[in-house]
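Q: Got a minute? One more chain.
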Amino acid sequence: MGRKATSTRRRPGATRRRAVNRRRQPRRAAPRRPVLAVTLLVVAAFFLAGLTWRVLQAPVEAVRIAGDLTRVEHEEVRAAVVATLQSAVTSVSDIAEAIRDLDWARDASVRRVWPQTLQVWVERAAITARWGEDRYLTTGGEVVAAPEPPLGALPNLSGTLSSGAETMRVYEMLSDRLAAHGIGLTSLEETALGGWRLTLDTGATVLLGADDLAGRIDRVLVVYEDALRDRAHEVARLDARYGSGVAVRWRADGERPMGGEALARVAGK
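A: Always. Here it is, folded:
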């Protein structure tokens, strides 16, 4: 006998009850954790911002200044800090900028130390030479003022037509050539016509004119090595403004000609 066929037809009532039960089940709420985390981050940011504002607005009770400064420079920095703190809007960058505005200050940094202290660091510009009567030249040729004269001997430089940077370049070229022969350059002056006048550490004056400075100082050095090294302190002036040769004025006997051998060597170069 064959098996009876099993009916798979569902009853209409059962299908309807399942549909009703689905409609009655509540929907699951979306997870709220990301929203809560964002809210907490915003609250924390506002709190930190308010705390930072209160800290920055708190009065400064101590200023610590670091750097290789003289007493006068130290006081100038402190005065600049105090003046900036008394302004309407103040930040550490404002204070650092006020310090950099000091003529002799090369760089400065300022930071707030908890809770009410300012830590200030200042770098002084490296001064290489005197410029005129009351100014100075940095290694980069910038003309600056200093609150007090730097310690140690400095060469005296002045330029009539040239800038501080141009004068510094001339000085470095000439002093390097002279130093190779053991001669120091104590003064360099540009005249109103653009010529250059040197003073050596022997006390002698050297006139180079305005053109071919390297060639003319080399000519002076040839004469120096040939005829003047042993009598350098007797020379009052060396004039290299001629096409060839060098005129010499002696300290004791006045002006007299150089030896013919030295002049011939220079003229033949």
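A: The chain has two domains: 59-124, 127-267.
Q: Perfect, thanks.
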